[in-house]
Each structure stands twice: as structure tokens, then as C-alpha cells.
Write a structure and sequence with these properties.
The protein is mainly alpha-helical. It is built from seven helices and four strands, in the order αααααββαββα. The chain has one domain (33-195): dinb family like domain (Four Helix Bundle (Hemerythrin (Met), subunit A), Up-down Bundle). Strand 3 and strand 4 (194-195) form a beta hairpin.
């Protein structure tokens, strides 16, 4: 692993590691290119999967709160657009062209949409955010420095931010998986791998898991 990959938190790599990478610069460059391309590819797939979870739903269903804390599908897309524009934009002194609320004023409003915001506007915002982020990824090296002023240790590198955004996007795509299944039963990692709905098979599978869980409710079950 190159010096860039050894420096996730923004702290300098060890002198020994730096010396080794200088001695085999071409090999380190290949490793860094592979890491960047892999993370970027995974991010692209996961972004599309998140947006796909809105496909075919009514305006009400993409907006309405589906958990006790108000989690909703279109709000997840708005949230990821906002923070990708920050973490892979302004953190590296590459401000997003559209106006963003100040991070100091963050109040959770990026997690839901107002009656005046349309689905098309939010998805368009997300697509512009990822185009802006893609340019940052293409144009900067993995060890490019950035500043996240709302973190306890503000100094970061591009590698760390790519991992952070991929982790956050994957987490919220998982939330969207569950919300969509609750709405109409549609499931799948991506549009290409959507699973066919087979109600009898699903009912049998669920019943099997319920039977396995039932003994835990009896006498002597752990609290």
C-alpha cells in the first residue's frame, strides 16, 4: 500500500514508508490508481442504486416519513447530495456551484424535502453533486490535502474522503433497500439485479425464520 493509503486520517506517512515508495514510485502509483478507480467505481454503482429505489413510486411515497425518526427516500437522496458536494467539493477548496447551507447551520433539513422541492430537482441536485465530486476525484491525487472544519481532526486526504462518502452512501442505500421493501416489496441491489416478487416463497421463508425465533420467547429465554 502506498504512502497515500497509509495516511487515512491526514497524518504524515512514516519516513520508512515514504522512502520505500520513492524507491518504487511506479508501483506505488499503480496501487494508488487501482485504489482510486475501485472506490470511484463502487461509489458510482451505489449512487445509482440509491436513486433507483425511488423508481415507480408516487410523489407521496418518496416523501413520506417511514420510520419513527422520519427517514424518507427522497430525503436520503437530498442528504447525500448535500454532503457529497461538501466532502468532495468544498473540503478540497472546490466549492459546489449551487448554493449550499452553511455547515454551521446544519439542522437536519437536508434529510427531508419541502412541498416546493420536486423529485426532479432533488435528483438533479444529486447528479450535479456527483459530477462535481467526480471532477475532484479525477483531478486530485489520493493524498491531496483537505480540511473538514467540523471534524475534531480537520486535516484529511482525498483517500479518506472517498472512503467516507462511499461508506455513507452505502449505509443510506441500505436504508433505502428496507424502506422500499416495506412500501411495495421490491428488492434488489441494483436495477439490473432486481429480485422477482414471489409471495408464497417469501411467506414460507419468513415463516421459517419466525419458527426459529419463537423458542426465544419461551420460559428461560434471555431478556
Amino acid at each position: 500500500m502506498s504512502a497515500a493509503l497509509k495516511s487515512l486520517s491526514g497524518t504524515p506517512p512514516s519516513p520508512v514508508r515514504s522512502h520505500l515508495c520513492r524507491g518504487v514510485a511506479s508501483s506505488c502509483s499503480v496501487i494508488d490508481d487501482f485504489a482510486k478507480d475501485y472506490l470511484h467505481g463502487q461509489l458510482e454503482v451505489t449512487r445509482r442504486a440509491l436513486v433507483w429505489k425511488l423508481d415507480g413510486l408516487s410523489e407521496y411515497d418518496v416523501r413520506r416519513p417511514l420510520t419513527a425518526t422520519g427517514t424518507n427516500l427522497l430525503g436520503l437522496v437530498k442528504h447525500m447530495a448535500t454532503w457529497e458536494a461538501r466532502y468532495l467539493g468544498e473540503v478540497f477548496d472546490r466549492p459546489f456551484p449551487d448554493p449550499l447551507p452553511r455547515w454551521q447551520d446544519a439542522d437536519g433539513s437536508d434529510l427531508w424535502v419541502t412541498r416546493d422541492e420536486t423529485r426532479e430537482q432533488i435528483i438533479g441536485f444529486y447528479q450535479r453533486a456527483w459530477e462535481h465530486a467526480d471532477a475532484t476525484i479525477r483531478e486530485l491525487p489520493l493524498d491531496a490535502p483537505g480540511q473538514v472544519p467540523w471534524w475534531p481532526r480537520p486535516g484529511v486526504k482525498l483517500f479518506a474522503m472517498m472512503v467516507h462518502i462511499l461508506q455513507d452512501t452505502t449505509r443510506h442505500a441500505g436504508h433505502a433497500d428496507i424502506l422500499r421493501e416495506q412500501l411495495d416489496g421490491r428488492t434488489g441491489v441494483t436495477a439490473e439485479y432486481e429480485e422477482q416478487i414471489d409471495p408464497p416463497a417469501r411467506a414460507a421463508h419468513r415463516a421459517m425464520i419466525e419458527r426459529a425465533a419463537q423458542p426465544a420467547t419461551g420460559p428461560g429465554a434471555a431478556p
